[in-house]
């Protein structure tokens, strides 16, 4: 867990991680090589040149001590050293922060010149000033910077940096071509998980092509299984509806005594169960996404529930926001949630929220709710939590929440259960990505 902070800082995307893997070795190599060049080459060269300059400065100072500045002018001119009065206030060494070779130059001059007072490398970078203490007082000797250290030491570093950036760009272009097939495979798999089939052709490296072909085979098998299930259930529906219709017709022709009425209710319940089973089986048959106003859709659902005698309130922003949704599937999902809320409670509330990257439908009721330790079980198909839910309004088959979660997952969203803070019953949050 000590590296958890590092994982949080890592890029989440494939391109970002590939760029990081590519850049870290190159940047590390640049830093190590640059440090070695500065230490082994520029500093050693600066030390050797400064040691030779110290001999020339000592010779000029000796001539000044013997006969004065005029007598030393010829020697200084021959050595290309200027003689002048010391600058005012120069009592300590001066250098720029980035002047790394100046550190070595000042160190060597101080080691070889006991008379050294100060070295000024920052006032005029091209012509440093060295102040020495002579017999007649301090004197300033100026030389060109080329006499003290190698000229333009930054050129090699700049060349290394630009070469490294160029090679990184070239390597990233090649790497991007290798990452594109992986990204396309991920997009195709994500779309299939949301109930959409997008064209996909395996490409890229051998391993990626193999994974792509395996995905296509898996997608084909799943589509075949779903088609066979739909056909089978369609046949079962047709075969069961016919005898149920005959039973209803036969019961309607009998005298309506209590036993016949009870049998009629059983037949009606069998029809309702059959419709519920078929709704669950048709979960994969989603409609196509179209521009839809979620607030208008929610208002229609509340109006339908009110016509059926349910007490449902709506909390939503003003209509007018159009999003790409599957309206029939979302309508079926939210209607299942509202029906479930009214089944176990007397009042329900539908809330619509539109955050930046998602749509949230929240359904709350004033029923008994579901214990926290049984909420995951309640989302499974055919799960009936009779001990926790009210049965005064009839029994169900435990498919309402399962159908809603199936539709949410096929939209790439999620369905979660909680407790309503206001009404005290169950709270169901349906979150769909935009």
TrEMBL record:
One Gene Ontology cellular component annotation held by this UniProt entry: plasma membrane
Residues of the HAMP domain: 176-227
Membrane topology annotation: Multi-pass membrane protein
Residues annotated as transmembrane: 156-175
Keywords: ATP-binding, Cell inner membrane, Cell membrane, Kinase, Membrane, Nucleotide-binding, Phosphoprotein, Transferase, Transmembrane, Transmembrane helix, Two-component regulatory system
Matching InterPro entries: 2C_sensor_his_kinase (IPR050980), HAMP_dom (IPR003660), HATPase_C_sf (IPR036890), HATPase_dom (IPR003594), His_kinase_dom (IPR005467), HisK_dim/P_dom (IPR003661), HisK_dim/P_sf (IPR036097), Sig_transdc_His_kin-like_C (IPR004358)
UniProt cross-references to SMART domains, sorted A to Z: HAMP (SM00304), HATPase_c (SM00387), HisKA (SM00388)
Localization per record: Cell inner membrane
Principal localisation: membrane
All residue ranges annotated as the Histidine kinase domain in the record: 235-434
GO MF term list: ATP binding; phosphorelay sensor kinase activity
EC identifiers of the protein: 2.7.13.3
Catalysed transformations (reactions): ATP + protein L-histidine = ADP + protein N-phospho-L-histidine
Protein name: histidine kinase
Organism: Roseicyclus persicicus
């Amino acid at each position: 867990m000590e590296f958890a902070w590092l994982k949080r800082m890592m890029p989440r995307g494939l391109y970002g991680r590939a760029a990081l893997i590519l850049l870290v070795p190159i940047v590390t190599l640049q830093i190590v090589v640059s440090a070695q060049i500065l230490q082994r080459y520029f500093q050693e060269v600066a030390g050797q040149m400064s040691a030779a300059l110290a001999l020339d400065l000592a010779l000029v100072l000796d001539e000044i001590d013997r006969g004065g500045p005029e007598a030393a002018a010829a020697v200084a001119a021959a050595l290309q050293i200027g003689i002048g009065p010391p600058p005012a206030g120069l009592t300590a060494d001066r250098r720029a922060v980035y002047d790394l070779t100046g550190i070595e130059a000042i160190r060597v001059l101080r080691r070889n010149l006991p008379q050294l007072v100060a070295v000024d490398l920052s006032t005029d970078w091209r012509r440093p000033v060295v102040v020495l203490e002579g017999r007649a007082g301090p004197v300033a000797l100026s030389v060109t910077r080329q006499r003290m250290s190698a000229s333009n030491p930054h050129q090699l570093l700049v060349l290394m940096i630009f070469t490294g950036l160029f090679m990184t760009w070239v390597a990233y272009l090649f790497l991007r071509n290798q990452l594109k097939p992986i990204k396309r495979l991920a997009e195709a798999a994500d779309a299939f998980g949301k109930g959409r089939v997008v064209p996909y052709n395996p490409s890229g490296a051998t391993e990626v092509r193999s994974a792509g072909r395996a995905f296509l085979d898996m997608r084909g098998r799943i589509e075949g299984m779903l088609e066979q299930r739909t056909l089978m259930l369609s046949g079962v529906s047709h075969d069961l509806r016919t005898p149920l219709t005959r039973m209803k017709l036969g019961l309607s022709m009998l005298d309506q005594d209590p036993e016949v009425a009870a049998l009629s209710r059983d037949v009606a319940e069998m029809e309702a169960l059959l419709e519920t089973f078929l709704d669950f089986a048709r979960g994969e048959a989603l409609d196509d996404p179209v521009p839809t106003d979620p607030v208008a859709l929610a208002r229609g659902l509340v109006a339908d529930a009110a016509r059926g005698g349910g007490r449902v309130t709506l909390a939503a922003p003003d209509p007018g926001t159009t999003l790409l949704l599957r309206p029939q599937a979302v309508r079926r999902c939210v209607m299942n949630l509202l029906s479930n809320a009214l089944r176990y409670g007397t009042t329900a509330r539908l809330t619509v929220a539109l955050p930046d990257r998602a749509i949230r439908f929240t359904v709350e009721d004033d029923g008994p709710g579901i214990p926290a330790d049984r909420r995951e079980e309640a989302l499974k198909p055919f799960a009936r939590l009779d001990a926790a839910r009210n049965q005064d309004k009839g029994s169900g088959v435990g498919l309402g929440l399962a159908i809603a979660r199936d539709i949410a997952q096929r939209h790439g969203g999620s369905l979660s259960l909680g407790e309503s803070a206001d009404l005290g019953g169950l709270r169901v949050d349906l979150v769909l990505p935009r």
